[in-house]
């Protein structure tokens, strides 16, 4: 009951701030094209789905923590690193193709144009495909999928109507900059270390019974 109450409270606090940050600000600058009511309906449905998803996950996490005993904080950190790896590496590599239709890009001139520029930086294009943009990638026009020096260029369908060949190249090179700079890897490492510091601090604090009493538990481990 305590965990559910905390999740509901966090949702009630976050929702109005999220509406202002993700909708109102973009609307004021002309970037938000979705009408207010459909956006609110979608955001509300996603919030409810998130709550329904988090409740069993939280229950499972508490069960695993009880099983891990005094090393519960290390288990949480391992799960956190796994999530970071999935979120910022695997989704950029292959999982974007899972259950999502794509079709080959047919413009041979633009294909050769992009291939020539990527070769200058030592990268080979395995192929260029067109795909509908996932809902959670609202600001993306292009994605480079794959690993190493061989990449697949994914062009989201809306970009074909909005971007010229030079603008498309700029978007591809922007993504290439992230790839060459190992931005995903550095982000994973940074948040993994941050998570390790936080979980180890909680692990030390949990040695004091007052830690659990403060959260409404008699003793967890």
Describe the structure.
Keywords: Hydrolase, Membrane, Metal-binding, Metalloprotease, Protease, Transmembrane, Transmembrane helix, Zinc. The chain crosses the membrane at residues 6-23, 43-64, 70-90, 186-205. There is one protein chain. The protein has 221 residues and is of the alpha+beta class. It contains eight helices and four strands; from the N terminus they run αααβαβββαααα. It has helices at residues 2-28, 36-68, 72-93, 108-120, 157-162, 165-180, 183-205, 209-214; strands spanning 102-104, 124-131, 142-147, 150-156. A four-stranded mixed sheet has the order 1-2-4-3. Strand 3 and strand 4 (150-156) form a beta hairpin. Helix 1 (2-28) runs antiparallel to helix 2 and helix 3 (72-93) packs antiparallel against helix 7 (183-205). The protein is globular. The protein starts with a helix and ends in a 7-residue tail after the last helix.
